[in-house]
């Protein structure tokens, strides 16, 4: 992305990211200035939580006071005046989306820290519509910060897989005391979202993370933001992996059953030499399979394969 050559080639690239985020990387011909812009459909919602202050702290002079037309934030780099550690500045530019989200979490984290000694402090809440039909809710109280994601499953099968996957998160708390509590709630929003625009439905689920003071301490705050702002992407990625794994197992088991069935078919020459008619029984009471019967057996093997997948 960043060059140090006398004659820098012109660049005009657009890169799509998750949640409808769009990056624009532009460098005009015969220019040393490289601009990296990001477009967020929900930027107006996160800007009110002090996003400009967080970005100014992270990027300093690289942040343009006014973003390019049609974008939310623009960074500007002079390719002939770059620091020695190019990898560090490139990595920081790649974290632009993360740092935009950071303003939301830092706002609520700071509120919890400043009111930790006031048990009666009023809870504050923010809403970010980071996708057209999915939302992130953040609530800060004196003793914790709660982050709730609403997600909509488009495939009925994903509802089941998502439930299995997210229930594993709830089990982690039993094995690791330091892990945040995770609550999975299908269909209806949790009580914290009463009075909001939270939706209900058979294909909707809510995932709640309860972050305690140790999770938002200065030592772990950055890591917490790194992980939680990608929760929705992380979950749906693993649901797709689960579906791919199930398909692989089903195909493999079906292939094994078909091999067994093929070995069970009587030899055609042997049957002809015995002068058996189709459907006649031999001395042992066995019977040659008609085409329709073979189809039934094959379908049965597929069903058995799926059930074995569920039990294993």
Task: Write out key terms for the chains shown.
Yope Regulator, Chain: A, 3 domains, actin filament binding, structural constituent of cytoskeleton, Arp2/3 complex 34 kDa subunit, 9 helices, five-stranded antiparallel β-sheet, cytoplasm, 312 residues, alpha+beta, globular, actin-binding
Can you lay out the helices and strands and say which pair or pack?
Layout: E1 11-16, E2 22-27, E3 33-39, H1 43-47, H2 51-59, E4 73-78, H3 86-94, H4 96-114, E5 124-131, E6 134-140, E7 145-152, H5 156-175, E8 181-186, E9 204-211, H6 221-228, H7 231-264, H8 268-273, H9 291-311
Antiparallel strand pairs: 1-2, 2-3, 3-4, 5-6, 6-7, 7-9, 8-9
Helix pairs in contact: 2-4, 5-7, 7-9
Helix content: 40-55%
Low-confidence stretches: 276-289, 302-312
Task: Give, in order, the helices and strands.
Answer: EEEHHEHHEEEHEEHHHH
Name of the top-level CATH class of the largest domain: Alpha Beta
Helical/strand content category: alpha+beta
The Cα radius of gyration reads: 29 Å
Total number of strands: 9
Number of helices: 9
Note the beta-strand portion.
15-25%
Q: What is the makeup of the main sheet?
A: 5 strands, antiparallel
Using the coordinates shown, work out and report the CATH topology of the largest domain: Yope Regulator, Chain: A
Report the mean per-residue pLDDT as an integer: 84
CATH architecture of the largest domain: 2-Layer Sandwich
| Rough outline | globular
Order of neighbouring strands in the sheet with most strands: 5-6-7-9-8
Number of domains: 3
Measured between the Cα atoms of the first and last residue, the distance is 47 Å
Pfam families: P34-Arc (PF04045)
Organism: Taenia asiatica
Subunit structure: Component of the Arp2/3 complex.
Keywords: Actin-binding, Cytoplasm, Cytoskeleton
């Amino acid at each position: 992305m960043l060059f140090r050559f006398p004659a820098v080639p012109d660049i005009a690239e657009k890169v799509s990211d998750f949640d409808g985020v769009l990056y624009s990387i532009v460098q005009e011909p015969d220019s040393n200035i490289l601009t990296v812009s990001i477009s967020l459909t929900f930027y107006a919602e996160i800007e009110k939580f002090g996003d400009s202050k967080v970005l100014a702290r992270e990027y300093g002079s690289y942040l343009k006071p006014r973003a390019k037309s049609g974008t939310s934030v623009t960074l500007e780099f002079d390719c002939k005046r770059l620091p020695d550690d190019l990898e560090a500045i490139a990595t920081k530019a790649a974290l632009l989306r993360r740092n935009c989200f950071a303003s939301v979490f830092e706002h609520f984290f700071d509120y919890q820290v400043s009111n930790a000694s006031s048990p009666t402090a009023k809870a504050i809440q923010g809403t970010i519509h980071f996708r057209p039909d999915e939302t992130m809710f953040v609530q800060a109280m004196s003793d914790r910060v709660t982050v709730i994601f609403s997600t909509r499953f488009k495939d009925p099968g994903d509802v089941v897989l998502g439930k299995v996957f997210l229930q594993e998160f709830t089990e982690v708390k039993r094995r690791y005391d330091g892990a945040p509590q995770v609550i999975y709630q299908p269909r209806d929003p949790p009580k914290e979202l009463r009075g909001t625009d939270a939706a209900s439905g058979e294909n909707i689920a809510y995932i709640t993370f309860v972050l305690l003071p140790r999770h938002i301490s200065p030592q772990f705050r950055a890591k917490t933001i790194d992980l939680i702002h990608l929760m929705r992407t992380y979950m749906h990625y693993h649901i797709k992996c689960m579906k791919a794994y199930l398909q692989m197992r089903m195909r493999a088991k079906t292939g094994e059953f078909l091999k067994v069935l093929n070995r069970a078919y009587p030899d055609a020459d042997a049957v002809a030499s015995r002068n058996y008619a189709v459907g006649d029984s031999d001395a042992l009471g066995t019977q040659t399979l008609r085409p329709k019967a073979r189809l039934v057996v094959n379908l049965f093997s597929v069903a058995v394969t799926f059930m074995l997948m569920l039990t294993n």
